[in-house]
Amino acid sequence: MVYELTTISCSPLTEGAVALAACDWMAQGPGRLLGVWRSEIGDLFQVKLLRGFETSNALQEERRRALMAVAPFGITDATIKVHIESYKRFPFLAEIEPATFGRFYEFRTYFLKPGGLAPTMASWQETIAPAREYTSHLVTNLYALDGPPRITHIWGFSSLEERSALRAHHYAAGLWPPKGAPQQIARATTMICVPEDYSPLR
User: Fold this and answer.
1) Distances (CA, A) of 26 to 4, 48, 65, 123, 180
2) Alpha-carbon distance 81 to 135, whole Å?
3) Given the DSSP bridges, would you call strands 104-112 and 185-195 parallel, antiparallel or unpaired?
4) Cβ–Cβ under 8 Å, residues 38 and 199
């Protein structure tokens, strides 16, 4: 599977309508919708949509459809901005499937130093099992196929308190972060989002 993460920046209070229009447009293509969220903490008035594609060719054909469309993602407002990213999952993680993780999802992106992807993958692979209480909340970790070297990991929690407690416990126990991984990070961003009621990941 190849994954596409689309971020749509829109006007205040329009996220619901923008998300529905984007989903309607996406339904005409080959991708499988996996998640629909709106930003809650971080850059506001954003919609995030995650899709999976069986092949890279299918993703590229869909990207071409978006480029040629008069109203890609159902967008008719010229002030709306769209950012599309292509990813593959870390090979030792399962493919993304619809599931219930909780009301709060964290999208965490690490921009990596040159050569940082391989050691980052290795350290994560060693840490997933020992930190299972925390990593059971990991939806996926993806590495970018375009743009600067980076990874985006998505987490789901029932509450922000649950997230904070799990992180504090695992940091104190030395189970997190994966050893050596922080040294590969050039810069990082994070955003807390909430899923739409119809999102497959919710």
Assistant:
1) 11, 13, 10, 35, 39
2) 33
3) antiparallel
4) no
Which fold does the domain 97-195 belong to in CATH?
Alpha-Beta Plaits (3.30.70)
pLDDT for 41-77, tens place per residue?
999 999 999 999 999 999 999 999 999 999 999 999 9
The reported pTM is 0.96
Confidence of residue 135 (pLDDT cuts 50, 70, 90): very high
Looking at the domain 2-88, which fold is it?
Alpha-Beta Plaits (3.30.70)
Residue type, 40: E
DSSP 127: H
Q: Could you give the residue range(s) of every CATH 3.30.70.100 domain in the chain? A: 2-88, 97-195
Q: Which amino acid is at 166?
A: L
Length of the chain: 202
